[in-house]
Each structure stands twice: as structure tokens, then as C-alpha cells.
Amino acid sequence: MTELHELTAVDLAGALRRGDITPAAAAAHYLARIEHHAALGAFAEVTPHAAFERADAVGRSPDRGPLYGVPLADKDLVARAGVPTRYGSLARREYVPAASDPLAAALDDAGAVNLGKTATSEFGLTGYTEPRTGHPARDPWNPENGAGGSSGGAAVAVAAALLPFAVASDGGGSIRIPAATVGVVGLKPSRGRLPIGSGFDSPDGLAVTGPIARTVADAAFLLDALVGLAPFRYATRAPGDGPFLAAATAPSPQRRIGVTTTSPWDDSEDIRVDPDAAAAVDAASAALTALGHGTDDARWRPRGYAELFRVLWRASAARIPLSDADLDVVEPLTAWLVRQGRGLAASDLLGALSAARVFERETIEAFSPFDAVLTPALALPPQRVGWYDGLDPERTFARQVEYAPFSSFVNVAGLPAVTVPFTRDASGHPVSVQLIGRPGGEATILSLAAQLESFRGPLPSPPNG
Fold it and tell me: Are 152 and 119 spatial neighbours (Cβ–Cβ below 8 Å)?
């Protein structure tokens, strides 16, 4: 008999809407799994009492929103009234917000049942999730390894079936890096696609909200729900067609796919693509060709990216409201980033923002001959917990770039991208590839990712899931 957590999120949502499963039963099942797998470090806070109250209220409501009764969790960067929200930081360890952020409130309006908060790196600043506020997020395929970040907890929760899918955020790869690390699907939407977490609510336009899921169809289903959360008061609706679940499950016309293992860091860092990552790209390219699509070298040669992104990364940290006393409590890397960011001249920031817009235009132009561009998801295999020591800021930054050089530039360009596991290494661990779309091109990359998923066949569950 299929256990509840073995259902796809699409099937679970359907069963809840039909009344085959109650919201309370779904919450109880997933809460038990969260408790059983606590050592994986997926959750920063679990709220069973509030979850059962919420599930009971949802079950008695005549409203059947798109996420009716579906268990979800907030990333620990999203404030929820009455629930400790630590932002992965000891500087906020006692903070309990009186009001919820718009995303938390909108997910409630859609009918979701919140189970708690998934772990994140401190203020979401890094591509690994090892906060001092709790345990590191660990890869369910090998718990000696970290899970990537900053949405590491969300990715682990999905990979280990502690949640049917998860809502996360991505400002430089924070959805795609952990999703690829633990072998699940991660989708970064276009800038402006969503009404909440659009990317337009910060000067750099980098961070957007998006889904992490076990299947492409589940990611598309959650994207549909996120797009419908609220009126488009704060974002410009991106071009492109929905609903996305239909795009992920319908036959696709022939597409032209660019293929590249070039990253914009190649002229400034020692980027070496692991043989398994390169082999995954080759295999995915061959599969897309076999499926009737055209593939060709993207011939992309970006320059000058490192300098602009270093400024944007430090400037984003400068916006975090931390006092001098707080800076004595936060992690050394965070303190360094904040101080560096606050020391930037206005001309430095304006120059980086201007350079980012030039990079955006040039990248879109370079990719314009293609419907999608295929790259590695990561350059290196998952790394041990503690590989990023966080004490030497420059070295930690360099290691993040070496691990995931194909992520942040997609945020700067405002493009959609999806990572999907496609091959497996010698140990059986999934190895993912990334598909980058045109502006507003989520439907196309979801369709292509679903075809790769089908071509690949089902993956086994991780041994610690």
C-alpha cells in the first residue's frame, strides 16, 4: 500500500480536495516523519500544536483553495505571527513576530497547513546551510555531506519526504543549489513572475520566491499556486503561458537548446567542472536530441561578472538591520559582509547595478537563439559539513563559487531556471542539470525538464529518507 508521503504533491492535493485524506491526517503523518528524521536538520522550528489547530480549521472550512490542506513550512526568513523566526541567526534567537509576512499570510489564504520553519543559512546569505542556531542541514543520500543553501532545510525536507514540496527563495542560487545537492527539482522563476517574492522589492532585483519539489509536475503545480497568491500589485506580470502544470504534462514542440559549461566566473576563479557534472550535461543533451530537439553550443563568453556580483552580494548584506552589538553575535562571514557592504561608496553600488543591467541585456542576447540553455547545476559533488569554514570570508566566497558557478548569474539576468536530477554517480547519488529559459519562459523549461525526468525514469528514495 502506498504511504501518504509517497504520493506526489499533485496526488496528495487531489486526495485532500476529494476528502480521501483529511488535513489533520496529512499534518499528523508529516509531523511524525519530521520528528523521526530530525537528525537531518531540515527544520529550524516545528509547530505541531499550531499545525493541528490550523488543520482542524481548514478541514471545517468550505473554502477549497489551491493548497487546501497541504502541509507546508516557511523558510526561516519568512515571519509568521507567534512563531519564532530566527533568520538562521543568534542575533534573532529570541524574535517572535507579532505579524506575518505577506507570503505566510497568502499561503494560509490558499489553504495550506503550516508545520513550522525550514532551516536556512544566516539571513540567507550563503550557499550552504550550517547555521549556529541549530544543526546543519544534511544530504539524505549521505548525511556526512551538507545540503547546500540557503534553502537547505527546504530541500532536505522535500528529498526526505518530510514535506510534499516546499516554498523557498533564490537570490543567487538558494533554491537550485540545495535542490541539486540533494537530488530534487528546484525552480527559480523569472523576475516579475510572482506577486509575492517578485524580485522587484529590492534594488538589485535578485531574490525571488519559488518551489522545491520531488517531481517537475509538483514544482509546476506549486508555481501555479504561487502565481495566484495575490493580485499583481507589486510586480509586472512576466510574459509566458500558464497554467504551468499543463505545460509540464503536455507534449512539447521541438525546441532549440543551447549547451554550455562556461560560467561567468571562469575569468576570475578556478572553476573546474567535475566529470560527473559534465557527463550529466552530455547525457541530458543526448536525451534532448533523442527526443527530437535541436542542441548546439551556446558559444557564451561573459566577462566582468565577478566584480559586479561581489559588490551586489556585499550590498545586500548591508541592508540587514543589525546593530553593532548584533555584529558581535552573528557569524564572522555575516559580520564581514555587512561591514564591507556598509563601507561601499554610492558610486560603487550604482556602478555595479549599472553593470548588472548591461550583463542582463548581453546574457539575454547571447541566449536569444535558443528556447532554453542547458548547463551543469553544480560544478562539484556534495561537500562535507564544515567544508565552508565561514572564518576566512574570501576563501568561503571562493568555495561557494567553485561549487555553484552556474547559479547567481541567472538571478542577475532575471531569467527562469530549473534544476532536475538526471544521472547518478558511482555511489548512486543523483547528479542534476540546469535548464535556463527566456524571460517568462517557465512553461518551456518545465516541459523540457519533465521530458528529461520521463526519459531518466524514476529515482529511488534516498537511504535516509
Answer: yes
